[in-house]
Design brief:
The structure is a homodimer.
Chain A lengths: L2 E5 L4 H12 L3 E6 L2 H15 L4 E5 H7 L2 E4 L3 H11 L8 E4 L23 H8 L5 E4 L6 H5 L7 E6 L2 H12 L5 E4 L6 H18 L5 E5 L4 H7 L1
Parallel strand pairs in A: 1-2, 1-4, 2-3, 4-5, 5-6, 7-8
Antiparallel strand pairs in A: 6-7
Chain lengths: ~230, ~230
C-alpha cells in the first residue's frame, strides 16, 4: 500500500484519481489550499469508496505525509504551487505531474496547448522542484469525467520520466485503475507529446461527439510480459 | 478507384504505402526524382501485388497524372520538393503529407522532432503549395517496415485537415490498408501532435524492444458508425 498525496485533490481530475486509488485500497491524502475543503472531499471519497484511509489536509501537510505526490492543479497554478511547496518535498520523494498546459486555461482553445519554455509542463515541474525529487509525467490523457465514474478506463497511461523509481511508481498507480495500463514512454522530455495528446483527444471528442476518447499503444509484447516488466 | 501519386515513392514508407494501395486495387504512380528508379520500383510492386496499374515516373509527371498526391520524402527534402513541384499541382488536387521532422534527419535523435516554424511539417507543406491545393496530414505513425510487409496494421491513422474533401480521401485511403483505421483528428494544426507521436512511438519501440508500436484511439462510436461517417 502506498501513501499518495494528491495536490489539487479537490478538483475534478484529482478527486477522480483519488477515488480510483481509494477503491484500490491505497492510503490517499487529498491536498488543497483549503484544508477544510480537502477534509470534506476526503470524507466524501471515503464514504463513496468504503476506504477509511482517505484524509484531507492543506497541500504542504499532505506532501509531508506521503511517499508519492500527484500534482493535478490547473496549468496556471502549477508553478506557484510547486514554489510554495518546495520545502515540503523531501529528497527522494516521487512527484507525478499530470499537468497539461491547455490553451483554455488562459482563455484559448482546449484543442491547443501553450508553449512552455522547458518543453512541457512536466519539464517545468522538474525545473521547479529541488534536485532530489524524482519527477514522472503521467495521467494527462484520462478525462476527469471518466476518472470520477466507476467505469473501466479504456486508455493507456503513458509514463515519462528520467528516474526508474518514479517511472515504476507511476506505472503501478496506473495499473491500479481498472482498464488502464501503464506504458513506459521513455524520458521526461517525451511528456511534450503526451501532454499535447490531451488536446488532440479533446479535438477527437468534439469531432465524434463523445466525452472520453482515449488511446491504446499497440504492437507491444503481451499484457502478461508487460506486467512482469513493471 | 483512385489514381494516387506517391512523391518519394521509392523510399521505404512510400513504397510500403504504394504496395498496400496496389493490393487494394488502386491505380498507383510511384514518383521519384529519378524516373528510371521509379519505374523499377513500380515494376517490382506490380509483380509483388499482381496489380498492373502501378507505374513509375518523375515526380512532376506523377503529380500531373494523379487525383491524390501522397508526400513521403524525408523532412530535409520536403520544402524543396514542394517548391520544385509547385506548378505541377492543379487547383483542387489533394495533397496528403506524411512528413515528420524527426531530429534524426539532421543527425539528432529519432525520439525527438525539430521545431518547424509553421507548427508542423504538414503546416509547412500547406504554406508552400498554391492556395487551391487541399492538404491533409496522415500516415505518419505506421512504420515503413510494417507497411512493406503484408501483415495487418494494428494502428489508427489520424487525419488532420482544414478541408473536408482531403480529410475524407485520407480516411478512405487509410481504411484500404488491412487493420488500419482512418480517424478524424480535426484541423491541420493538430498534425503537430500526430507528427510528434511518431517520435514517441519510436521511443516506445526502444523501451519495449519491438519494431512497430502503434496506437488506437478508444472511446469512439463503434466501427460500423465510423465506417458510415467516412
Amino acid at each position: 500500500m502506498h501513501t499518495i498525496a494528491i495536490v489539487g485533490g479537490t478538483g475534478p481530475a484529482g478527486s477522480g484519481l483519488a477515488s480510483r486509488w481509494a477503491r484500490a485500497g491505497q492510503r490517499v491524502i487529498i491536498g488543497s489550499r483549503d484544508a477544510v475543503r480537502a477534509q470534506q472531499k476526503a470524507a466524501e471519497i471515503a464514504a463513496q469508496t468504503g476506504n477509511q484511509n482517505v484524509s484531507g489536509a492543506a497541500n504542504a501537510e499532505a506532501v509531508s505525509a506521503a511517499e508519492i505526490i500527484v500534482l493535478t492543479v490547473p496549468f496556471t497554478a502549477q508553478a506557484q504551487t510547486l514554489k510554495d511547496l518546495k520545502l515540503a518535498f523531501r529528497p527522494g520523494i516521487i512527484l507525478i505531474d499530470a499537468t497539461v498546459a491547455l490553451a483554455s486555461t488562459v482563455g484559448g482553445r482546449a484543442t491547443r496547448v501553450l508553449g512552455v519554455w522547458q518543453g512541457s509542463a512536466a519539464q517545468q515541474a522538474a525545473e521547479l522542484v529541488s534536485k532530489g525529487v524524482l519527477v514522472a509525467a503521467a495521467f494527462q490523457n484520462i478525462g476527469a469525467e471518466l476518472l470520477q465514474s466507476a467505469a473501466d478506463v479504456d486508455c493507456d497511461v503513458i509514463v515519462c520520466s528520467d528516474h526508474d523509481e518514479a517511472r515504476q511508481a507511476a506505472i503501478e498507480l496506473a495499473n491500479l485503475i481498472p482498464g488502464a495500463r501503464g506504458i513506459d514512454g521513455g524520458r521526461l522530455e517525451n511528456a511534450r507529446t503526451v501532454e499535447q495528446l490531451t488536446a488532440l483527444l479533446i479535438a477527437i471528442n468534439t469531432r465524434y461527439k463523445v466525452h472520453s476518447a482515449g488511446l491504446r499503444i499497440t504492437g507491444l509484447p503481451t499484457m502478461s510480459s508487460l506486467g512482469s516488466k513493471t
